Amino acid sequence: MKIITVLGARPQFIKAAPLSAALRKNHDEKIVHTGQHYDYQMSDVFFEELGIPKPEYFLGVGSKQHGAQTGEMLTKVEEVLLKEKPDWVLVYGDTNSTLAGALAAAKLHIPIAHVEAGLRSYNRQMPEEINRVLTDHLSALLFCPTDRAVENLALEGLTEGVVRTGDVMADALYYHARRAEDRQLGENLRYPEKSYLLATVHRAENTDNPERLQGIVEAFARIKGQIILPLHPRTKKLLQDHNISLPENVKLIEPVGYLEMVLLEKGAELILTDSGGVQKEAYLWRVPCVTMRDETEWVETVQIGWNTLTGASAAKIAAAVAGYRQNPLPPYQENLYGNGRASEEIAAALEKQRR
Length: 355
Ligand code: UD1
Ligand code: UDP
Description:
Blueprint: E1 2-7, H1 10-23, E2 28-33, H2 44-50, E3 57-58, H3 66-84, E4 88-92, H4 96-107, E5 112-115, H5 127-138, E6 141-144, H6 147-155, E7 162-164, H7 168-181, E8 196-200, H8 204-207, H9 210-222, E9 226-230, H10 233-241, E10 250-253, H11 258-267, E11 270-273, H12 276-284, E12 289-291, H13 299-303, E13 307-309, H14 314-326, H15 342-351
Parallel strand pairs: 1-2, 1-4, 2-3, 4-5, 5-6, 6-7, 8-9, 8-11, 9-10, 11-12, 12-13
Bound molecules: uridine-diphosphate-N-acetylglucosamine and uridine-5'-diphosphate (UDP).
Enzyme class: isomerase
Pfam families: Epimerase_2
Keywords: Isomerase
């Protein structure tokens, strides 16, 4: 079957690593890269490190306001779809690239497969929530990473075409963990195991709002220990715009490649993040996590006590870190995000759709 995959942002490249490999065993897949992320460390590094097939189309849309960015992607994806006439369009997650790919396909009556369907924060202020709700309602196949995602879809009347597959990001980690462990971090990052914390911050609600960003930085200053912060370019820019400087215990570095990132995660005492992917990876490495958001789509790790939601309050973030340091960790539950075979299951479900 001919499948066009539309992607454009860092976590989507990582998700495509295992899934493109699985799809290409039996399908003719072509990748369309919208250009939403374009710095070497936000895009090319993942294609090179993870052996993701080179995109057939690069749309070069770049950074813009939501409407302009999504609109330009929509126009350009439509041109590709008219030319390629695929049987399916596949999209990942909840970025503007996801919505543009889904909308372009829906208008041309091409069925859509949505990977990472059914996630909800129930916060419509988040651009991602709008993107995922709309994409789910346009999709014919909805690949859910968790039981909760299946339940969320059912609450919206979506039950047809819903398949619980596990999480392709977990597949990526299971697949590449050994390769990462065989590597050595750069000399500037070689800290003893569990002697540092790792942090990432990039969510719009935390970076666009100076009070929230200041709260997070203030929390970093209150926490005892070295914090490594591979900084998303969005946050770098907004720290400057809001004139916020980082405390001395924060080691600021450029965004890193996936293999370096997951090694940093593995060696961390604790992870502080507002990323979706990093929350799950923390759990898979058995590293406790503080999620600096008011809600999360990945509720499973919070429910079993390995992840704490703090919002952007300095006091709550610092208290969550202290809590982990003072108390033993709760029991670990295996396979919360599947058994590493989500990509194979997605490829097989698409195979069943052959006309
Ligand atoms: C996007 C997604 C978010 C996802 C994140 C993953 C949307 C609405 N948001 O957020 O869901 O979690 O990607 O990382 O789709 N920039 C660069 N170089 C780059 C890319 C971005 O400098 O290669 C800077 C630009 O200043 C840009 C800003 O980052 O304006 C934001 O980029 P954008 O892609 O709009 O949103 P993200 O915050 O990356
Ligand atoms: N990641 C990375 N380098 C970094 C920061 C994150 O490779 O400097 C990886 C991380 O391991 C995870 C993914 O990027 O696999 C998460 O992407 P991000 O946090 O940008 O987006 P989200 O998951 O929140 O949508």
